[in-house]
Design goal:
Length: 307
């Protein structure tokens, strides 16, 4: 079944590589294990509906014939735009297309700023989000969240690490995080407490920015000292521009879960169907293919748990 997709609203944003090079080239470099043709192809084109999941689908969605998903399409390799600056590609668009296919529906993409996604879902502008979002206690107060991927956070610094920074020596430094992200709300504060303030050192200074592209630009111009963001995205960008920045190892460990989940409005009638569809996706060869295409196979999980 061919799954149609369209953008509700687009932003004229370049990929990480174009942002860093500032060369005016809007093409998106392919991540490890992928090609331009596979980037633009619909991974769900030949996926058939799952009868068990379709049975749980409310009639209103069957009548509508499509799902609306909110994403912030600025984050290679999980959520970004192809070279045409129109087609959503990456792990998260793949997941959205596969979910829709399992339910026999089309999918419509809404390209929005990350910290406006939850208000949009609460306001019924979108049916769900698949945008590498962690199921935090705060989010679970307003969202039903179903797991689909195991992620993590790392810190990127200027190329060659001229300040000789490590995860333990960021005290007093300006570290960028995405506004509204788990990095801003949980992980950077926890890292700051763990490595700095509990030892009488200055706290890490969080610099909240709208997206990782802006953070990488500010890192290149030395306005910030580092970036805390999803490990797969930083690793992907580092492979594209190895002379632009360095990713510190290991990834940070602040005792929180690295799982990411789709999000729906709390108590949504759609939740049972999407959970069943997600389990069907996780059991499918297309799920493993998508992870491999985007170089994130280590993040595979097997259970579509409802948090």
């Amino acid at each position: 079944m061919k799954i149609g997709s369209k953008i509700l609203s687009t932003t004229a944003a370049l990929a990480v590589v174009a942002t860093l090079t500032a060369c005016g080239n809007a093409s998106v470099a392919s991540p490890p294990g992928s090609s331009a043709s596979s980037n633009d192809s619909d991974i769900a084109a030949n996926v058939q509906p799952d009868p068990a999941a379709v049975k749980l689908l409310p009639q209103s969605y069957k009548d509508k014939g499509e799902l609306t998903v909110a994403m912030d399409l600025h984050y290679p390799p999980t959520t970004f735009l192809a070279a045409d600056n129109k087609t959503p590609i990456g792990l998260n668009p793949d997941i959205a297309r596969l979910l829709a296919a399992k339910l026999g529906l089309k999918v419509e993409f809404g390209n929005v700023v990350f910290d406006t996604i939850i208000p949009g879902i609460q306001g019924d502008r979108y049916d769900f989000t698949a945008t590498t979002m962690s199921p935090t206690p705060e989010r679970l107060k307003v969202l039903d969240m179903v797991n689909y991927f195991d992620d993590g956070n790392s810190v990127a610094v200027a190329a060659g690490n001229p300040l000789k920074l490590s995860n333990e020596t960021l005290c007093g430094k300006n570290i960028a995080v995405t506004a509204g992200s788990t990095g801003q709300l949980k992980r950077l504060p926890a890292l700051s407490e763990q490595t700095c303030t509990s030892k009488g050192k200055p706290a890490i200074n969080a610099v909240a920015l709208p997206n990782v592209n802006e953070a990488l630009t500010q890192l290149a111009s030395k306005r910030i000292d580092g970036i805390l963001y999803d490990t797969p995205s930083l690793a992907w960008a580092a492979k594209q521009q190895p002379n632009a920045f360095t990713v510190l190892t290991p990834q940070i460990n602040v005792g929180s879960s690295n799982v990411t989940a789709i999000g729906l409005k709390k108590g949504s009638a759609l939740t049972p169907a999407l959970q069943a569809a997600m389990q069907s996706v996780l059991d499918s060869p297309e799920y493993k293919k998508s992870l491999a295409n985007w170089g994130v196979s280590d993040g595979a999980i097997t259970k579509a748990t409802l948090n």
